[in-house]
Every structure is written in C-alpha cells, then in structure tokens.
Amino acid sequence: MSPLERRAVSGLSFIYVARMLGLFMLMPVLALENDQLRYSTPLLLGLAVGIYGLAQALLQFPFGVASDRFGRKRVLVFGLLIFVLGSLLGAVSHNIWGVILARLLQGGGAVSSVLLATAGDLTGERHRTKAMAAIGGSIAIAYVLGVALGPVFYGFSGLTGVFLAAAGLGILALLPLWKLIPPIPRNAQTRMGSWRDALRIFGYPPVLTASVGIFILQMVLGASFVVLSPELVKAMHLPDAAVWEVYLPVMLLSVAAMVYPVMYAEKHKRHGRMLALSGLAIAGGALIMGMLSGRFWPVAVGAVIFFTGYNMASAILPSMMSRSTTPEQRGAASGVYSLMQFIGIFVGGVVGGWGLGIAGERGVFYLLAAVGLLLALHSWSGKRMTPLLEPEELKKYKLGRSYDIE
Question: Which of 315, 206, 202 has the alpha carbon at shortest distance from 255?
C-alpha cells in the first residue's frame, strides 16, 4: 500500500476499534445490573442488550446515502457524536428504560457502511481486499478487548464507568478524521448502491450465505450475554466485579484456538466446512454450560469451546462475503451484511431475555445450542448455495466472479 492508503486504513481501523470497543464492553456486564436497575425484567434486559443492533440495522443505508450527498467525514462525525450522546445518557441512567434509550442512541451512530465506503474511496482496487481484511480484523480485536475490559471497568465504577469509557472512546474515534485519514476527493466517492441493488444482492448466493450466517452468529452473541456473565460468576464463585478474571483467559484461549481453522479455511477455500465446525463448537460449548451449570471446570471449558466457535465464524464470514463481490458492488453487499448482522444482535438479545424469563439460564443455553446447530447446518449447505456461476447468470446481480467456498 502507498503511505496515504496505510494512513487511511490505520485511521479507519482505529475508528472501528474505538467505537465497537465501547459497544462490546457493555455486552458482558449489562446482565449483572438486572437487580440494580429499576423496572428491569428479563425481557427488558434482553431488549437493552440487543436494541442497539436494531438501530444499527435500520440506519446503515440511510447513513450510507447521506455520506454520498454530504460527504463521508461529515456523516462520520455526526454518527460518532450520536454514539457519544447515547453513552453519556447511559452513564446517568439508573433505570432500565434510560439504559434502553441510551443503547438505542449508541446504535443510532450507524457508520459501519460509511467506514466501508470510505475505505473504498481511499484505497486502490489492488489493495482493497487487504484494507477490508485489516478493518475486519480490527472488529475482532475490539470484540476480544471489549469482552475482557468491560468487566474491568465495571469492577472499578459499575455500569456508569463502562458507559463513560464508551463515551471517551467515541470522542477518541473523532481524532483520526482530522489528523490521520487523508481528505476524500469529492469525485472519488462512489455510491453504496440503491435499495433496488441491495434487494438484488440479497439473492446473490455468496452474500446470502454470509448474511444469513452473520445473522445467526450475532443472534447467538446477543442471547449469550443475557446469561453468560451471571453463569460464569456463579460457577467460579466470584463477585460480579471480578468477572473479567474469567473472561480474559477464556477469550485469549479461544482466539488462540481459532487461528489454525481460519488459516486452513483461507488457504484451502474450505469456508463452508470450517463454518459448520464453528457452529458445532458453539452448540457443544453451550450444551456443556447448560447441562453442567454451576460447576467450575465444565463451565470454563464450555465457554472456551463456545467462543472458539464464535471467533472462527466471525473471522471467516466477512472474508467470504468480501472476496465474492466486485469493488463496484462491495459497498451494497457490505450494507446487506451489516443489516443482517445488527438485526441478529437485536433478535438475539430479545430472544435471550424472553428465554431467561420463560425457561431460566439453562433453557437459554439449550436455545444457544440449537442455534449453533442451525448455523452448522446452514454453513454445511452453504457450499451448495455458492456454486461457480456462469457469466450470463452473474449479470443479473451486477457482480463479478464467484468462487467455491466449500
């Protein structure tokens, strides 16, 4: 990459890390506040966990279109300021409805599609895949750090401290827009694709496979955080503030365990098979935690297996989606992918809260196991859903070549 391209990718990755870190830090600790927040119920708690995903899903395309008209950086600043406002509201809220509104505002800063479009503006076609891979990797880093650091901030200053940390990260995310990311030429901004294009891309097999896969995966994530932190605290006999002592080694071990399967999938194009394996790992880990709830080692081992499966899938899916589309349509495809991603988080949080109220913690773990099996089945069949398409068939999607993801 050229120096300008490296600056752009570094700055955009930093924005992704800062913003998503602020969101992910809240995921493992919200459930710990169920008894402290006024008017809280399991269903409302699940809504608080997942509602930012709904706001993200609804606003991805409007933000992308606005960035075409008003400029990328202006829309990025606007979205990040909304995120900061929501974080500050969460810091002063002491009832579940205030937290729900705060999470809704956090999600209202839906700039993921704008960041992807900016990456396309500032990188040449030759290096665009590298740029997308770097940005995708930054999201994975944010997830791991957020799950590990959220409980640390919670231990020092409770939920207020976590929300304040998220606000601070949102402010830091503004800095690269002035200091690091190069100016974007007006004529370099290409459109993300119309709604008609998006609907057409929904039917393109690789994007369909990846989008449905990320929906299922993020549904698992949203539902898991309704029960996972309380279960880890109970099994390890730790105070709530010390839950980070469990999350940190669990996440480090799971990241180490997922490296080889991801490398194997990329080298041999066996994405479908590795995704199926990740679904089985999610199902197996959830089943262990559900059947042996409250026991130290089974829950610890189950959590490592569960997150290994999640991290594998979260690394493979965006790569599969990006590599199967041309630069001209990658923005629209990324918008579809992001839409399904955040809808999955919302549905997962609500379903997890509903399941907790109906069937208790074990019932939610069994539900997670079932969803993990669904991901495995979808991914295994995905190799049949993404054949090498003939050129005349590709024309109706306005896309370029495909590749076999078996």
Answer: 315
Tokens at 228, concatenated = 């996972």
Q: What is the DSSP string of 285-344?
A: HHHHHHHTTT-HHHHHHHHHHHHHHHHHHHHHHHHHHHHTS-HHHHHHHHHHHHHHHHHH
CA-wise closest residue to 53 among 181, 225, 258: 225
* Residue written as token pair 């009832």: 95
Instruction: Identify any residues that bridge with 38 across adjacent strands, giving them in sequence order.
Output: 95
| SS3 of residue 9 by DSSP | helix
Q: Which fold has domain 193-385?
A: Growth Hormone; Chain: A; (1.20.1250)
Q: Which residue in 35, 153, 24, 143 sits closest to 91, CA to CA? A: 153
Residue among 371, 347, 344, 303 nearest 210 (CA) = 344
CATH of 1-192, one of 1.10.10.10, 2.60.120.510, 1.20.1250.20, 3.30.710.10: 1.20.1250.20
Report the candidate in 43, 48, 16, 53 with the shortest Cα–Cα distance to residue 141. Answer: 16
**Cα–Cα distance, 99 to 195 (Å, whole number):** 32
Q: How far apart are CA 209 and CA 379, in angstroms?
A: 8
Return the domain boundaries, the chain: 1-192, 193-385
* Per-residue model confidence as pLDDT tens for the chain (406 residues): 678 888 888 888 889 888 888 888 887 788 777 777 788 788 888 888 778 878 888 887 788 778 877 888 888 999 999 999 999 999 998 888 998 999 999 988 888 878 877 877 787 666 655 666 566 667 667 776 787 788 788 878 888 999 999 999 999 999 998 878 887 765 555 554 556 666 677 777 777 777 888 888 888 877 887 777 777 777 777 766 666 677 778 877 887 888 888 788 777 777 778 888 988 999 999 999 889 887 888 888 998 999 888 888 877 777 677 666 665 565 567 667 777 888 887 888 888 888 888 888 888 889 889 888 888 887 775 444 343 333 344 445 454 444 333 4
